[in-house]
Predict the 3D structure of the following.
Amino acid sequence: MTEFTYKDISEYFHRSYKTVDGLWFVKTEERFDFNTALKIDTEVWKVMPKIQARFLKKKLNKDRGLDALCECFSKKLELDGFEFEVDRSISEDDGSSHIKFVISKCPWHDIIVKSKRTHFSDKIGGVICKTEYGVWASEFGRDIKFEFGKKRICREDSCCILSFKIS
């Protein structure tokens, strides 16, 4: 019997995780309709980020605040196969701290493109990303808020800009 490396095993589960997400969506859409599938998917993505954030907080020994969010969210993006840069700054207008993630490659968008469903990309990304990343923010403090920047890959921009700031 062939022995798998840790990398093989990791790839197996990673691909399964991504595949099951899209597969259940398509099957739900076939059974009902696109909007129903998107509503149910939104409910899933209100829970999944809590599980991910809490796991990474424990593993990275982090708790609350923007610094903890930055480290844990960066690890999440890395594990999911995103390509990104992080920009930390303080607003000159109000002195608030914020973190901006500039994503140049989104594996979820790549899956939508590969499945020839690009016409749904903006709608799915607009709803699911807003939900998922809003939950991520709330896991690190009630005062931390998420907002989209002006650019989004699912709108055919070259990158996504995600901002987390203390309100």
